[in-house]
Every structure is written in structure tokens, then in C-alpha cells.
User: Fold this.
Amino acid sequence: MLSVDETKKLWQPLSHQLVTPHDETTYQQLVDWLDQLIDEVGEDEQHPLASLMEIIGILIERYEDEQVPEL
Assistant:
């Protein structure tokens, strides 16, 4: 497990990208990022970015559950 100091160093480059969406703009940025990850990762659960893809998917799903009306 990483120490807090190690985590701070690694987190800084991602901290403005990997966020909980609270508006349509941020939501769309995450959707676009997820699309790129899907193209890269595909169905490969062993891919180094597979867990990132899953996390972004969860953030998107949560936003949609809270903000997008059901049809």
C-alpha cells in the first residue's frame, strides 16, 4: 500500500480529471474519458487501466442515477 506522501505525489496529475461530476460539463468529460479507456482496455480485465475504467464508470453511473430523469 502507498504511503500518504506517495499518494499525494501520484494523485496531483489526476486530481483535476478524476472527480465526482456535479454538472453536465464534468459528466461529459468523464464520459469522453471512459470512451477512450474502453477503446484502449476493451474486455481485458488484466489491463493496467481496467480498474480506472471501472471507477470512472461508477462515477458516471452515480451521476446519471441522481441527475438524469428516467424515461
About this structure: Residues 20-67 form one domain. The chain has a mean pLDDT of 95. Helices lie at 4-11, 24-41, 50-67. The radius of gyration is 14 Å.
